[in-house]
Structure formats: C-alpha cells, structure tokens
Amino acid sequence: MSNKAKHLLTADTFNRGALRMTVALLRGVNPRLALSVQNQMSGPLNPQSDASPSPKDNFRLTLKPIEVRHVVETLNEKTKHPNADPGTEMLIKALIIDWVNYANFLIELENNQDA
Known about the structure:
By secondary structure, the protein is mainly alpha-helical. It has one domain (9-114). The protein is 61% helix and 5% strand. The chain is built from 5 helices and 2 strands, in the order αβααβαα. A two-stranded antiparallel sheet has the order 1-2. The protein starts with a helix and ends with a helix. The relative contact order is 0.16.
C-alpha cells in the first residue's frame, strides 16, 4: 500500500461530502461549530487535476477534542427528531460513526503522547 493511500485511510481524514453534510446539519443549531468544521476544508490532500472542488477531496482535520464531542452530540440529537427522514437518519448515523472514529483517534494520539 502506498504512503498516500495509507494516509487517506486515517480517521483524521474526511471527504468534502461528509464535511459539507456535517456543516449543513450543524449550521442551524451551532453556527460557530459549523464554521469550525467548514474551515477544515482548505487545502485538500488529494487535489483534483483540474483544481475544481470534488466531493472526493479529502481533508485532514485539526479540531479540538471538545469540538469533536459537540459535533457528535449535535448529530446524535438530530437522529432523535421525530420527523426525521429515514435516509437522512442513516446518513447522520454514518457521520456519527466517522466522528466517533476521529474522537477515538484523538484519544489514542493523546495516550501515545503520555506514554
């Protein structure tokens, strides 16, 4: 496996589509947090040859653990909405898994620094 492919599979790497969906879901509830997530979309790790934005662009996140916690909590609240569309609910649950994986990645990083 090449170094680039290995890098793209880490938990701190999100694609543009996942980040945009997260921003859209957060914006109405916590605009400041939505902006923090949106600001992560600068400098894709795999820019497209024509330099146009693509949902496949990947970005390395640098959010603080407390921000990641708030993202997960806010997304979790969205799944409890009584009128939630099943498709949207499934998307939100997939996003929650990605964000929890990122949180676990941050915990592991912190534990490795303490060791």
